[in-house]
Amino acid sequence: DAKTTQPTSMDCAEGRAANLPCNHSTISGNEYVYWYRQIHSQGPQYIIHGLKNNETNEMASLIITEDRKSSTLILPHATLRDTAVYYCIVRPGDDYKLSFGAGTTVTVRA
Amino acid sequence: EAGVVQSPRYKIIEKKQPVAFWCNPISGHNTLYWYRQNLGQGPELLIRYENEEAVDDSQLPKDRFSAERLKGVDSTLKIQPAELGDSAVYLCASSWDTRSYEQYFGPGTRLTVT
Predict the structure, then answer these.
(1) Strand extents, DSSP E, chain A
(2) How far apart are CA A44 and CA A87, in angstroms?
(3) What local confidence, expressed as pLDDT, does residue B100 receive?
(4) Distance between CA atoms of A15 and B58, rounded to whole angstroms?
(5) Could you report the per-residue pLDDT of A2-38, keeping only the tens digit for each?
(6) pLDDT in tens, B29-82
(7) Quick one: pLDDT at residue B2?
(8) With an 8 Å Cβ cutoff, are B45 and A44 in contact?
(9) CB contact under 8 A, A87 and B103
(10) Beta strands in B1-114, from DSSP E residues, in sequence order
(11) Interchain proximity B43–A103, CB inside 8 Å
């Protein structure tokens, strides 16, 4: 499985966009990029996933570079409730496994 | 729609004692997962069920851990005997099937072994 690299932590201001980077330089052609987050004392929560096109849903946007070696999760208007650990995961399309790393601890400050 | 339910939320036991965790997945979800999450790390898969069959238990320490999913609905994860290193959060998740893009996680059971 391809591995991902994320910053350990980052801060962002409430109301501003939060841009979370992820490197996955060894990603294979059939592997998707997934993002989950885990708020304190809760289980992980699915945010979004994509293969090569940019994706947007009610929670976030996912921007994948053309070479697919990196991606950025964008929280358009961060709120205090977005404070969480964010996990970038690479997962083959025909595989069920979610291999979580340590993630990025995002702190949204008022 | 109710989410994944786990109980208890917290458990403190002495080493060498047995412990059990219970999970009720989202109704209709055929696939059930148990994960373990150590402090400061991401969750790691222990076992996956398709209905009542354990189809991947390669990461389950079988000398002391066991799991069952009777009738393909609720599941129980057991540790006997518990060791200090078993202190962690045990998470249950479910999905419609193996290839579903979204796994739904419960809140977890925080186990402390003293």
Answers:
(1) 9-13, 18-23, 31-38, 45-50, 55-56, 61-64, 70-75, 84-92, 104-109
(2) 9
(3) 84
(4) 44
(5) 589 999 999 999 999 999 999 999 999 999 999 999 9
(6) 999 999 999 999 999 999 999 999 999 999 999 999 999 998 889 999 999 999
(7) 83
(8) no
(9) no
(10) 5-7, 10-13, 19-24, 31-37, 44-50, 53-56, 65-68, 75-79, 88-95, 104-105, 109-113
(11) no
A46 interaction partners in chain B (CB closer than 8 Å): 101-104
CA of A86: which chain B residue's CA is closest?
Answer: B42
Q: Scanning the structure block, which residue is given the tokens 């609905």?
A: B73
3-state helix, strand, coil in chain B (%, to 5): 5, 50, 45
CB-count exposure of residue B28 (10 Å: 0-12, 13-18, 19+): exposed
- B48 neighbourhood in chain A, CB within 8 Å: 96
